[in-house]
Design brief:
The complex is a heterodimer of chains A (339) and B (152).
Chain A (H helix, E strand, L loop, with lengths): L23 H7 L4 E6 L7 H9 L7 E4 L11 H10 L4 E6 L5 H13 L4 E5 L20 H14 L15 E6 L9 H11 L3 E6 L3 H13 L7 E6 L5 H10 L7 H9 L3 H17 L4 E6 L7 H9 L10 H12 L2
Parallel strand pairs in A: 1-2, 1-8, 2-3, 3-4, 4-5, 5-6, 6-7, 7-8
Helix pairs in contact in A: 6-7, 8-9, 9-10, 10-11
Chain B lengths: L1 H9 L1 H17 L1 H7 L1 H20 L47 H11 L3 H4 L16 H11 L3
The chains are: A alpha/beta (339), B mainly alpha (152).
């Protein structure tokens, strides 16, 4: 899809009235489309081509690409750099900022820098503890938490001021997001915590992996009762599981991932577990899209990124819509030029 | 002191009442504190505060006490020092992602807050980033000085 005011790839879109950012992700959500985002794991490399190759596998299926920030406390190329590379050719990245590695001075600088490089979306995270990653000997910073980070980001954008109060000459026009995990205790509090994130400035939410639709429904009912569904765009996290062993490993070792026994058993009993995992993911997406208040899905397919296209296509959630990507932009322009 | 800390969140309501009385007297005594000099009081009061709150809450002396708004569970004991609620890594049994032997500070905070009167609501408010300059200073004196200066 292309907007009528489509700029040259890499240039910002005009900011529409009531919008916060010049990005296509916000445009798609506010237009009421069911949005799809995917997670890109930044490479252990200094080669930009590796970033582009990882983005290309999502072409035509996603409205925004999240670049993780040292996910799982493992060291990779920085999220700011990945996002800057992606904006160069017109992609719509979501900058992830975790509070684990940088203090408020560094983080505010990164937000300004990213906005200057055309990044229009920011996901505020607290981050995994350093014990989870490949550098457990590192110092955990946690100067901020995800909510105070959100407040500071909103202040930069809406008041044009640093946390210190010092004025900016130009504001970072960003669409602000937060994460939520409806599948971890204290379950009663999770919807209220979402309310807190919205109060702090969250405009979109990307959740942890959902493998338990009844639990998600319960959460979304409370969110609806609290009157929050019209105040935020919620994208539910999904992903294909390649095998029962991986599922077992994920739920044991990755904090906050909840996988019901029935899911593990289904994979264990399947003749082709990888295909079964994708089928399960498609079914989950189809169930999730029917839940009131869900605006999209966020696909996290670590080491199975090639599955994203297959899963999204089979789920039918895009309804024939083709999200923007650089090659398509070129071909559409050629069509326009052709007699 | 871990067991005492858990006891404190279980008795959050009683502690809330007790603290409200204590805070009122602190504020009422502001003229007296001023006569002695807040600066001169800082050291001994901080020592007393650290000792008492250390026993009851494993207080880390952030200098901007939030216990009344966090169900009497000190958020600075969270390995990520989260001041606004639990992270997404809380284990299914309610234990901490980073220190599995410890109950999540915020699971405790939620339990505690639900026993409280004002704390039941105030846990919902967004807390700003911590001012690291206040670490080690007395929250009690700060509250007395600031609330006495502000007409109720």
């Amino acid at each position: 899809m292309m907007f009528s005011d489509e700029p040259a790839p890499g240039d910002p879109l005009p900011i529409l009235p009531g919008h916060s950012s010049p990005g296509r992700f916000e445009r798609v959500l506010r237009a009421g489309a069911f949005a799809v985002t995917a997670e890109l794991s930044p490479p252990d490399s200094a080669d930009p081509e590796e970033v582009y190759a990882r983005a290309r596998v999502f072409d035509g299926r996603v409205d925004a690409i999240n670049a993780t920030d040292g996910s799982g406390a493992n060291c990779h190329m920085s999220s700011v750099a990945v996002c800057a590379l992606l904006t160069r050719i017109g992609y719509s990245p979501v900058l992830q900022i975790s509070c684990r590695d940088r203090n408020r001075i560094a983080i505010q600088g990164d937000i300004l820098g990213a906005a200057a490089m055309g990044v229009a979306n920011l996901l505020c995270l607290t981050g995994d503890g350093v014990q989870a990653g490949d550098h457990p000997q590192a110092k955990p910073v946690f100067d901020l938490d995800c909510l105070s980070l959100m407040e500071i980001a909103r202040r930069l954008r809406d008041e044009g001021r640093f946390e210190s109060g010092r004025a900016l000459t130009d504001r970072p026009k960003m669409f602000l997001g937060a994460a939520e995990n409806p599948f971890a205790p204290p379950y009663d509090w999770r919807p209220l915590r979402l309310a807190k994130k919205i109060a702090a400035g969250a405009q979109f939410i990307q959740t942890q992996y959902c493998f338990d639709v009844p639990l998600l429904r319960q959460f979304m009912t409370r969110v609806d009762d609290l009157g929050l569904v019209d105040r935020v765009f919620i994208l539910v996290g999904v992903g294909p599981l390649p095998s029962a062993r991986t599922a077992e490993w994920l739920r044991r070792h990755v904090a906050g991932v909840h996988i019901p026994d029935a899911v593990v058993e289904r994979l264990a009993g399947a003749a082709k577990p990888k295909a079964e995992g994708r089928k399960l993911c498609i079914e989950l997406i189809q169930e999730i899209r029917e839940i009131k208040g869900v605006s999209g899905v966020h696909v996290m397919a670590y080491r199975q990124e090639e599955a994203v296209a297959e899963v999204i296509d089979a789920s039918g959630v895009l309804n024939g819509r083709i999200p923007w990507y650089p090659e398509r932009h070129k071909s559409l322009l050629q069509e326009k030029v052709a007699p | 002191m871990y067991q005492v800390r858990l006891w404190s969140t279980r008795h959050a309501r009683g502690l809330e009442t007790l603290y409200q009385l204590f805070e009122r007297s602190l504020i009422a005594l502001d003229p007296f504190w001023r006569r002695i000099g807040y600066q001169r009081l800082e050291r001994p009061v901080a020592v007393a505060e650290r000792a008492l709150k250390g026993v009851l809450f494993d207080c880390q002396m952030c200098g901007q006490c939030a216990l009344s708004d966090t169900g009497m569970s000190c958020p600075m004991n969270c390995p990520k020092t989260m001041r606004n609620g639990p992270c997404g890594g809380v284990r299914a049994d309610g234990s901490c992602e980073v220190k599995p032997s410890m109950r999540c500070v915020w699971v405790e905070a939620w339990d505690g807050s639900q026993r409280m009167r004002r704390g039941r609501e105030s846990i919902r408010a967004v807390r700003p980033a911590v001012d690291r300059r206040l670490a080690g200073t007395s929250s009690w004196l700060r509250v007395a000085r600031e609330k006495a200066a502000r007409p109720a």
